[in-house]
Specification:
By secondary structure, the protein is an all-alpha fold. One of its GO terms (molecular function) is DNA binding.
């Protein structure tokens, strides 16, 4: 029986640190995100409220969209 190494076994995968240096938005990024929907009328107010609730309470997207 002959075994052959997969060619992908020679590839080096970068550490997660190299891929994602931080996992949270900076305060300026949050401000920009929250200012964007305010320009869209009633739907903008709804979207602003949803984004603010997600940010303040640490909700995942799946948790936010399951709200009724």
């Amino acid at each position: 029986m002959m075994t052959v190494d997969a060619p992908t076994s020679l590839l080096k995968r970068p550490n997660n640190i190299e891929l994602r240096s931080r996992e949270y938005p900076l305060p300026d990024e949050v401000d920009q995100l929250l200012q964007a929907p305010k320009k869209m009328g009633w739907y903008g107010q709804r979207n602003y409220t949803l984004l603010l609730m997600m940010y303040r309470h640490g909700l995942w997207v799946s948790e936010a969209i399951s709200l009724h």
